[in-house]
C-alpha cells in the first residue's frame, strides 16, 4: 500500500511517500519514507527551493513563487521521473493524506475529502489565512493528477475538539460562541502523537496519565492532556494566540490592536502582518525568527537577542503554569518539534523552578541530543521526554485506517 502525505505549512510544503508492504497491519514504529520532498518559500520572494530525497539521492530545484499549485505538481512528478523515481506511475498511489490546520467544529476526526469538505476548508480560510489556502492547493494538485485517488483531511483542530466548554469559551457575549468564535487549538496531530508515544515509552496507558506536550517550533503551542483527551491548549481561535513564536506575537492585550488602529491608523491587513509576520522572536530581536540566529546574537553580545530569548522563556514558563492549573497535577512533560527536540537550553530553562512539583531535569541526558528518551533524573516524580514528532506518519496511519474501513 502506497500512502502519499502532504503537510503544508504557511511557507513550506513537506511531502513523503510510505510503502507498506503488508497492507493488513501497521508496523509498530514509523517506517522510513520511500520518498521525501520539501518546498521552502522563505528563501526569496521570487522563488522557492524544492529538495527531493529518494534512492540515496538528493536533488534541488528552484521554483517560481507565483506558481505554487504547479510547484506541487512538479514535486509529485519527481516520484516517477529522474534520479528520485520510486514508482512507475502516479496511479500506484492508493491514498493521499493532507494535514489541514483548521477544521472548525464540524470535523473532529480524519475525514475523506469531498466537495463539501473542500468548501468547508475554504470557508475557514479567514481563521487560518496562512495555512488553509496551501492545503487546498495540495488537494487540488492531487485531484488534477490522480482524479480517482481517495484523499483524506487530518485536521489539526480535531484532537482539541473535546476540550470542555470552560476551556473553549472566551469571556465575551455567548452569542459569539454560538457563531463559532471559540478556542479551537492547533498542532493537534503532533500533540496526540507525542502523548501516545510518551505513554508507550513509559509502558502505561495514556488514559492513566496527565501530560503537558510542548510543540515548540516556529509555531508553538502547549496542550494539557488528561485521560487521553486534550482539556486545554495555548492556541485558540487562530494559531496567533498563546506562546511567543518565531514571527507571531502570541497572546497580547487586545486593546493594543484598538490603540494601533486609532492612534496610528493601521488597517486590518497591516495589523495582521504586524502580529503574524513581524512579531515574536523576530520582532523583539530585530534580527531573525530563527532561534539559532538568536543564540548567535546572544554570543555576540546583542542585548535585544538576549531580551527576545528571555521573553520567550518567560512566556513559555508562564503558559506551562496555566496548563498545570488545568490538569491539577503532572505525570509527564514532553518536548517536541524543531526547538523542543533540538534546543537543550530551551528545555533546561523551561524546567527550571519546578522542583517543588518533583520535576528534576538530568542535565547530562538533556545535552546528549536525546530522541524518544526520558531526560529526567532517576528521583524525579515527573518524567520528562524529548520525542521526535512524526506528524507525517500519524497522517499516514489515519489514511490506512480509512482505506481499510471504506475500501476493503
UniProtKB/TrEMBL annotation:
MF terms in GO: kinase activity
One Pfam family this sequence matches: Acetate_kinase
UniProt-listed PROSITE patterns: ACETATE_KINASE_1 (PS01075), ACETATE_KINASE_2 (PS01076)
Top-level class of the enzyme under EC nomenclature: transferase
Binding site for substrate: 99
Cofactor note: Mg(2+). Can also accept Mn(2+).
Annotated site location: Transition state stabilizer: 187, 248
Active site positions: 156 (proton donor/acceptor)
Binding site for Mg(2+): 7, 391
Taxonomy, superkingdom: Bacteria
Pathway(s) annotated for this protein in UniProt: Metabolic intermediate biosynthesis; acetyl-CoA biosynthesis; acetyl-CoA from acetate: step 1/2
Reaction equations catalysed: acetate + ATP = acetyl phosphate + ADP
Cofactor: Mg(2+); Mn(2+)
Primary subcellular site in the record, as a coarse category: cytoplasm
EC numbers, comma separated: 2.7.2.1
InterPro entries: Ac/propionate_kinase, Aliphatic_acid_kin_short-chain, Aliphatic_acid_kinase_CS, ATPase_NBD
Alphabetically ordered keywords of this record: ATP-binding, Cytoplasm, Kinase, Magnesium, Metal-binding, Nucleotide-binding, Transferase
Compartments where located: Cytoplasm
Residues noted as binding ATP in the record, renumbered to the chain: 14, 215-219, 290-292, 338-342
NCBIfam families linked to this entry: ackA
Family that this chain belongs to: Belongs to the acetokinase family.
Function of the molecule: Catalyzes the formation of acetyl phosphate from acetate and ATP. Can also catalyze the reverse reaction.
Assembly, per entry: Homodimer.
Stated name of the protein: Acetate kinase
Organism listed in the record: Roseofilum casamattae BLCC-M143
